[in-house]
Amino acid sequence: MRWIAVCLLLVLGGCGAGTGQAKLEAFVGLGSAPLPAGLKPAELGTAEGQEFQRVLERAKISNPDEVRAALSFAPAADRRAFAFVKPGCAEDGAELTIERDTLTAELTGGENVNCATANYFLTVFSVDRASIPAAPTLR
Asked: Which pLDDT value is given to residue 21?
């Protein structure tokens, strides 16, 4: 049912809908250690993407190799890749919503779990190049 809502948003937003439009390429738990302030979503393969990776490598995470592998994802020529870090609890996946010029990552799963401390998750999505503007807003 959620996929139908995402597709509906895509059509209403004028971006078109396609089965391969947005794909979750990586989902990595980062633990509960506070992450550096100002970590903003970024497009991989850009200067912002490289800074995103440097900030995460300096953070106190227990799985730097997994993070490095996720951020090394190289999309096909007709796709672009975006990385987000989101706070959550016990989520086990994520979805990307595309509405007009805005890409928003949301964590999924882990319902009905109470957490005393937030956990953080790295998500990497690939998106059809033709379905988004040259400079989308990332949230």
From this structure: 87
Residue 109, sorted as left (phi over 0), alpha (psi -120 to 50) or beta, turns out to be left
Alpha-carbon distance of 8 to 16, in angstroms, equals 9
pLDDT digits (tens, 9 = 90+) for 60-73: 888 999 999 999 99
Residues 6+ apart with CB under 8 A from 29: 63, 119, 120, 121
- Token reading at 29: 């738990």
pTM equals: 0.83
- Can you tell me which residue has the tokens 């882990």? 110
The sign of the torsion formed by the CA atoms of 100, 102, 108, 114 equals negative
**Cα dist from 132 to 14, 71, 120, whole Å:** 10, 20, 26
